[in-house]
């Protein structure tokens, strides 16, 4: 089974509304579908690290997916990454997890060997090939996604995240979703289309471009499911 998780209605409901699904409530709401003869469970986790982690664990406990893909929008933290571009996450960090005073690296969680979570290479490569069908290669990026419980709308915060993690974008759920997958031995990937530049105009840009940017990921996710 394949799991698809987004944080917002705008990021997923258009897909759910266009396919035949069975709504299942198991504490949280999930949607079951058969897409290209693949069993798929889809759902909206809500915003933030706790919401996304709990929802992901519930999806794993109830449906045992082999792979979970997080789709949604994000703010750019790299000048080369523009609104409407796509970021395929290869590595994931918590940009707001700070135990540096206890001797850990910024973003590192005590008792975890590494600071980062690394996506399944086959999923990354597959997503890149599918993305090339709808976007020019200069609008597709593979790299680091930084997650934190902050809607980043200040250049100084954006610049700090970029400096600490060399990230392409920042958002509020990917790392907690892939962290949960990592602990459960589930393959994972996050695909994020850019809705804003994580600066002082971010709120306005997000409201303007969230729906349009979400279409970038929606246009390739069914193709990815077909090939997994």
End-to-end separation in angstroms reads 10 Å
Order of helices and strands: EHEEEHEEEHEHEHEH
State the helical fraction: 25-40%
Main sheet: which strands, in order across? 5-9-8-6-10
Main beta-sheet strand count, sense and barrel state: 5 strands, mixed, barrel
SS summary, helix count: 6
What shape does the CA trace take? globular
Pathway: Amino-acid biosynthesis; L-methionine biosynthesis via salvage pathway; S-methyl-5-thio-alpha-D-ribose 1-phosphate from S-methyl-5'-thioadenosine (hydrolase route): step 1/2
Pfam family, one: PNP_UDP_1
GO molecular function, one term: adenosylhomocysteine nucleosidase activity
Domain Nucleoside phosphorylase: 2-226
How would you summarize the topology of this molecule?
Elements: E1 2-6, H1 9-18, E2 22-26, E3 28-35, E4 38-44, H2 49-63, E5 67-76, E6 86-94, E7 117-118, H3 121-131, E8 140-147, H4 155-165, E9 169-171, H5 174-183, E10 187-196, H6 202-227
Parallel strand pairs: 1-4, 1-5, 5-10, 6-8, 8-9
Antiparallel strand pairs: 2-3, 3-4, 5-9, 6-7, 6-10
Helix pairs in contact: 1-6, 2-5, 3-6
């Amino acid at each position: 089974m394949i799991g698809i998780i987004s944080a917002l209605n705008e990021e997923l409901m258009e897909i759910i509304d266009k396919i035949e699904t069975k709504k299942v409530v198991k504490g949280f709401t999930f949607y079951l579908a058969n897409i290209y003869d693949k069993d798929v469970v889809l759902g909206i986790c809500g915003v933030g690290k706790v919401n996304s982690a709990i929802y992901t664990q519930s999806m794993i406990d109830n449906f045992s997916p082999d792979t979970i893909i997080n789709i949604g929008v994000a703010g750019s933290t790299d000048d080369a990454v523009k609104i409407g571009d796509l970021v395929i996450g290869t590595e994931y960090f918590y940009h707001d997890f700070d135990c540096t005073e206890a001797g850990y690296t910024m973003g590192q969680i005590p008792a975890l060997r590494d600071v980062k979570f690394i996506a399944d290479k086959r999923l990354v490569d597959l997503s890149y090939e599918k993305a090339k069908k709808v976007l020019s290669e200069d609008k597709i990026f593979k790299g680091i996604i930084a997650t934190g419980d902050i809607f980043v709308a200040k250049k100084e915060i954006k610049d700090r995240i970029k400096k600490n993690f060399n990230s392409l974008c920042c958002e509020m759920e990917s790392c907690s979703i892939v962290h949960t997958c990592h602990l459960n031995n589930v393959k994972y990937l996050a695909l994020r289309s850019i809705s804003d530049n994580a600066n002082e105009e971010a709120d306005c840009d997000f409201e303007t471009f969230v729906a349009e940017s979400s279409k970038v990921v929606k246009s390739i996710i069914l193709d990815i499911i077909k090939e997994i």
